[in-house]
Design brief:
single chain, alpha+beta, Ubiquitin-like (UB roll), DNA polymerase, domain 1, 2 domains, 5 helices, globular, iron-sulfur, 2Fe-2S-bd, 2Fe-2S, metal ion binding
């Protein structure tokens, strides 16, 4: 079957089987490999993308169920000029990454949080990140990065 959706602001289509997960469709069908797959069970959050502005763990959603919707992946998070978004820059500046495997999902969930609640408390950030696992950093610098992005300015954090 042919599945069409808007990905990072551009209409995209690919042939796929009805049982194809959104994560596989993005990676294998569209060549957008920034979305990582760590568990296939919604436990780790590495595959988080935004579907119509809401964070979704793409390893448990069928691509066909997202047909016609708008999807933002980590590749769509940069500013129009190619520079890093506020949240991406904060992750870099505050070393909110180590091995980098969880980073796309962490950036996506953090951007969703800051779009929903621009000035969260540290406790709120930690609570929102509970569905995303990092096995390297201990979360301290990730939380610092999110807090720094919240205080950076009022620029839009995600290209929705």
């Amino acid at each position: 079957m042919k599945v069409t959706m808007t990905v990072n602001g551009r209409p995209m289509s690919a042939e796929t089987e009805g049982r194809t997960l959104l994560s596989s469709f993005l990676r294998d069908g569209l060549g957008l490999t920034g979305t990582h797959v760590g568990c296939d069970t919604t436990q780790c959050g590495a595959c988080t993308v935004h579907v119509d502005g809401e964070p979704v763990k793409s390893c448990t959603v069928l691509a066909q169920d997202v047909a016609g919707k708008s999807v933002t992946t980590i590749e769509g998070m940069a500013n129009k000029d190619g520079s890093l978004s506020v949240i991406q820059q904060a992750f870099q500046d505050h070393h909110g990454l180590q091995c980098g495997f969880c980073t796309p999902g962490m950036v996506m969930i953090s951007a969703a949080l800051l779009n929903e609640k621009p000035n969260p408390t540290e406790e709120e950030v930690r609570h929102y990140l509970k569905g995303n696992i990092c096995r390297c950093t201990g979360y301290h610098n990730i939380v610092k990065a999110v807090m720094a992005a919240a205080g950076a300015d009022s620029r839009k954090l995600a290209a929705e």
